[in-house]
From TrEMBL:
Database matches in Pfam families: Syja_N
UniProt entry keywords in alphabetical sequence: Hydrolase, Membrane, Vacuole
Biological process annotations from GO: phosphatidylinositol dephosphorylation
Name of this chain's protein: Suppressor of actin 2
Source organism of the structure: Hibiscus trionum
The reaction(s) this protein catalyses: a 1,2-diacyl-sn-glycero-3-phospho-(1D-myo-inositol-3,5-bisphosphate) + H2O = a 1,2-diacyl-sn-glycero-3-phospho-(1D-myo-inositol-3-phosphate) + phosphate
A GO term for molecular function: phosphatidylinositol-3,5-bisphosphate 5-phosphatase activity
SAC domain boundaries: 157-532
PROSITE patterns cross-referenced by the UniProt entry: SAC
InterPro entries reported in the protein's UniProt record: Fig4-like (IPR043573), SAC_dom (IPR002013)
Record carries keyword Membrane: yes
Lineage: Eukaryota, Viridiplantae, Streptophyta, Embryophyta, Tracheophyta
Record localization: Vacuole membrane
Amino acid sequence: MASENCSDGGLDPNPCYLQKFRLYETRSHFYMIGRDKNRTDWRVLKIDRLEPSELNILEDSTTYSEIECSDLLRRIHDGNRSTGGLKFVTACYGIIGFVKFLGPYYMLLITKRRKIGSICGHTIYAITKSEMITIPNSSAQSNMADSKNEKRYKKLLRTVDLTKDCFFSYSYNAMHSLQKNLCKNETGLAHYETMFVWNEFLTRGIRNNLKNTLWTVALVYGFFKQVKLSVSGRDVKLTLIARRSRHYAGTRYLKRGVNEKGRVANDVETEQIVFEDVPEGCPTQISSVVQNRGSIPLFWSQETSRLNLKPDIILSKKDPNYEATKLHFENLARRYGNPIIILNLIKRFEKKPRETILRTEFAKAIRFINKSLSKENRLRFLHWDLNRHSRKATNVLELLGRVADYALNLTGIFYCQITPNRIPDGLLNLSCLMQNDNSEKLEMNAGSDKQNSTENVKPPMFQNGVLRTNCIDCLDRTNVAQYSYGLMALGRQLHAMGFTESQTIDQNSLLAEELMVVYEKMGDTLALQYGGSAAHSKIFCQRRGQWQAATQSQELFRTLQRYYSNAYMDAEKQSAINLFLGHFQPQQGKPALWELDSDQHYSVGRHDLLNEGARTYFKRSMSDGNILCPMGASNVGHHQPLSDYRNGATRDLSDMPTPDISYSRFTPRLSCRQLFGDMQGQFPESNRICYENADECNCTNFDMDWLSSSGNSCDGDAYDRSITGLSSEIMEIIGAELRIDAATSPSESGSSIRGVDRTASEVTCDGLMDVYSEKFVDWVTNGDLLFPMNLKSK
């Protein structure tokens, strides 16, 4: 981010943000002139061009006026007349970073940008054009500058297209969620060290040298889309952001599962922000909700094959105690708090076991980890075979919406009101919030000479915990589930803002269709990045009523496109990513990147990584970069176990004292009748809830497949058998456990408007006992087994 406090520390009420730059050159130096938006502050950066292989940067500490800066450039020109004077090179909008291969250093610049949205007045930009400029002049360059390998490295780096899916902001920390931005005060240097800044390595040298981020921008890679919606005659802006992690980043078959440091492939944070579209200077409301997707955190792989569209899944047994899996969930707890809810969408039955291998092992890992955790911190694990149900008449989106409702009851959403006179020119922080500790009326200054007005200020709400969704690739099925979650969350966001009376949005409404379009675009973008083709969107196409033949041809084309990309393009794409992220650093006398296998290059040019001996049993599992608690409390150690994260002990999304919203995990607004709906008569007698004996496994492992799946047989005929009815045995258990009246109203089930505004003290387990059984409340509260008995299948 090209921003920094002008003071030497702390938060400055008037921070300096350089947004436009001009690059000049003499024979011996580059001079970069940067100015702020208002053309009041001008700064100068000096880069040495005589050193052939080192990077020497000096920053002038003086803040100039425009006239003073022009005079300085004139004097520099006069002093260099004998060697050609001062020449203009290019206008630019920030430094992406510096990179070195075998010869000289290169500077990467943003030369064109475009606005793609704004958040609370802070503009978000995308890159339209970038340039790579050689630092040393031609006479100072070594022979390596024109070597064959040097040119090949330059060409490889240029294949990383920064004009696609990268975004940044000068005054808003786009690498963080809205809640993190409002609830954390961090320096500009710390922002670059988070997992979502993709040019962290490229900017490391200049940041460490200058101790600021005035001249650089922090690039986030993923997806950004902002649209305007109309709700009850009022305009709101919806922003969907996907942030892809730079840790263990890469392509589909070359990056699978987890590595030794607990980082997973295709790790993407998705944030949905909604705020009222009001004129500048007016009070506004804003809400956000965060969800996560990522590869199954086990050691597994699939070897790329040009002869097989579906390569075998290879599961490694190198981590019998699931240490890497545990590290992954500890990191999620640091970033988002508890509870961690896992929605596993992979197949339950297969003629030839592939996905089911991972399904079984993933469940074992969760059970193993949960044994060491306290009840309140146990991982909530939900199985649901989306592929199975998408081929049936089951309303997949409706069932996923019920899962989303369950998750949102546990985590809550973020919501606050912002006063216009408290929005600083710099980054958002807690001073922006309308606050009323007594939940009474707050008298606010409207910023005019008129009399003060009183408004009813709602207390802020905070999200604690996250829903983590996965399938095999975390692309197609996962995107459908994330849309369902986003739709359910949007209903709650609009309700919190007072735009709707209900917390739910009709799936057939125009609002749902508009949201589906945005999520479908996000799914296509993320699938192209990781998988090489747009996402398979059969469910979305069916929802829109698209002609079935057209859908099938589209799906076939995308399958072939993905196959071609994986088999022929991904190796070079992976090498380019490794080069850009600094996972591979070329060195003279060492093998070139293209001379190495994919499991070798991380040990070249790096000194802080595990040795190859630690990776004897599994390839493609290494990654560079450090997890520095990007969304959690910085004082939490990297190896702090999940069991240390007690309720209320830490605010992983907020360090501020906040109203305790953990009551949401005590208020299961999703009643049994709502959860099962009209599906109660469609379950087969052979259906089984996949729980082990409570004595053998004390964990939360809630299998959603029992909602509408058939029996356990992998036989093809049995697999395609029509769904009949639910056994009386299971119905008796459901009735005995939940004791839900068939005529339960929305308000009785806890989904009324009043339910959202209640405080923690108003919601008690005793109040729930009138509607829910003790075992059900204990399961929602503490994560115990919902059905601790074995069910026999016929």
